[in-house]
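INFO  loader      accepted 1 record
INFO  loader      residues=228
INFO  predictor   begin
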Amino acid sequence: MRVTADKVTESRLFITSDLHLGHKAIIQYCNRPFDFTDKGIEECDDFLLEQYRNTVNENDMVIFLGDLTFKKNHKGQKMTEIFTKLPGRKVLIKGNHDWYKDSFYRKCGFLSVNRYLIFGNYFLCHFPVTGKPDYHGRLMDEEYCKFVKATCGFIGEKTGSCTVIIHGHTHTQSVDEDDGITRYNCCVDYKPNNYAPVEFTKEMFPELYTEVAAYFQTLETKQTEGQN
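INFO  predictor   done
INFO  writer      dumping tokens
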């Protein structure tokens, strides 16, 4: 989905990814500082949610780049309780662990549910869109194409005129490519992110901020009109 700017609302913009709530094995995969026990995963979940609450205010815009939970361990009712109570105005881009229907995630408080979003030169999706295997040995493009049902009109043949990819999926790993694309890893496990949402400030990312703000405003206008 491609969106364009119109008006800017004054709030901060955060992007985050790969909470993997309820996923015990992620403690070992990503070396999260918690015991590899049922109690450890509960403490890990509580810590990540507290990091979020300490970072995001009610009026802030937040884009989640997928893998909210590990479905096997998080029933729908619990997910609804968690995400509807989190502060911020929220949008979801699905990852490879977000298996519920889009309508369910809207019940969790997300204004929209997407496979990707394009804002000017910025391409946002769960995957970093490279031709190299990820840490599971799978090609990231193969995973990506399961969710984005198109290949024409993207960087080269992937992301069109976009020069920046904001992604999740790689957890602790950075993506070093020589394809001329700038990539930002927004996974909570990526060390510079300190287990918290990443702020993309209006001053440092004016084009992205302006277009995202316009997108949120459009979503909220439609939501208000639908309630009347």
